[in-house]
Design a protein that fits this description.
Elements lengths: L3 E5 L11 H9 L2 E4 L2 H11 L5 E3 L5 H13 L4 E3 L13 H9 L3 E5 L4 H7 L8 E6 L4 H11 L5 E6 L4 H11 L5 E5 L7 E5 L1 H9 L8 E5 L8 H4 L2 H10 L4 H12 L3 H12 L2
Parallel strand pairs: 1-4, 1-5, 2-3, 2-4, 6-7
Antiparallel strand pairs: 7-10, 8-9, 8-10
The chain binds S-adenosylmethionine.
S-adenosylmethionine binds next to helix 5, strand 7, strand 8 and strand 10.
Length: about 280
């Protein structure tokens, strides 16, 4: 009789968020497949559990799938965990789940935290329909395309983003949707949990003011305009042209618009270039 593959959600920060069912499952299985043994050791130490750990991450997922499948077929039950939250949600595991289903092995989810649902629930943005897009692309051009491809959905948009790219992403959001409401959910369930709400450029200004930007971010984008902000609905290139028409030198006009919109000058240059190529 084959074993069962348990997909076990673990906390996204606060260890008290681990469910009793997750703890019982981790204690009962023969071994635990995990991303980073140090992270999972910490969790198991907190629970007072000792278990063999099988390293399973993006780079060895293909090779490890066959080994895990063989153990399941030999009757061992296994748990799959990720470093934080729900496995397979922007985390490895898809291959083993797919292969287990294909092999007729039972796959049982043990639900628990996922950052995007946690963020959405307290964001104050509409929850009737939402789109979760995983991580934002690392490069601005791809990121803008990724955002634009879902921009007209009647839904709250949710993405994961790394702290060292959050300012660049806010610049792209300011260029695409200057008035849409944005919520940044940072360090959810942890000591420094915070929700920052505002337009993309307001949030850019808030974060740019900090000595350093740390922690884990989930980005939520509302569907409507935050508030009537007529001056911000004028496209950047038109605003620069208007100032030039008033006799303000081009460089000065660009500097002023960048400052007013809370954008770096290079973003304004890029927008002028984009408008010229339309
Ligand atoms: N499997 C996880 C889940 O269920 O949410 C997501 C893993 S993904 C590799 C990690 C990303 O999720 C982080 O870069 C961040 O964008 C988001 N994230 C994870 N924990 C978070 C937290 N405590 N607060 C805000 N965002 C978080």
């Amino acid at each position: 009789m084959p074993g069962t593959l348990y997909i076990v959600a673990t906390p996204i920060g606060n260890l008290q968020d681990l469910s009793q069912r997750a703890a019982h499952t981790l204690a009962a299985v023969a071994a635990i497949a995990c991303e980073d043994t140090r992270q999972t050791h910490k969790l198991l130490a907190h629970l007072g559990i000792e278990k063999p750990l099988l390293v399973f991450h993006d780079h060895n997922e293909r090779d490890r799938t066959a080994a895990l499948l063989a153990r399941l077929q030999q009757g061992e039950s296994l748990a799959l965990v990720s470093d934080a939250g729900t496995p397979l949600i922007s985390d490895p595991g898809y291959r083993i789940v797919d292969a287990a289903i294909e092999a007729g092995i039972s796959v049982v989810p043990i639900p628990g935290p996922a950052a995007f649902v946690t963020a959405l629930s307290a964001s104050g943005l509409p929850t009737d329909a939402f789109y979760f897009g995983g991580f934002l692309a690392a490069k601005s051009g791809q990121r803008r395309k990724q955002l634009e491809s879902v921009g007209s959905l009647e839904a709250t948009l949710i993405f994961y983003e790394a702290p060292h790219r959050i300012l660049e992403s806010l610049e792209d959001l300011a260029a695409l949707w200057p008035t849409r409401p944005i919520v940044l959910a940072r360090e959810l369930t942890k000591l420094h949990e915070e929700f920052l709400r505002g337009t993309p450029s307001e949030l850019h200004a808030t974060l740019a003011d900090r000595p350093s930007i740390k922690g884990e971010f989930t980005v939520l984008i509302g569907k409507g305009a935050l508030a009537p902000q007529p001056e911000e609905t004028v496209p950047v290139h038109q605003e620069v042209a208007r100032l030039e028409a008033l006799g303000i030198p081009r460089m000065e006009a660009i500097k002023t618009v960048a400052k007013d919109r809370g954008l770096p000058k290079r973003t304004v240059y890029q927008l002028l270039e984009d408008a010229r190529n339309l």
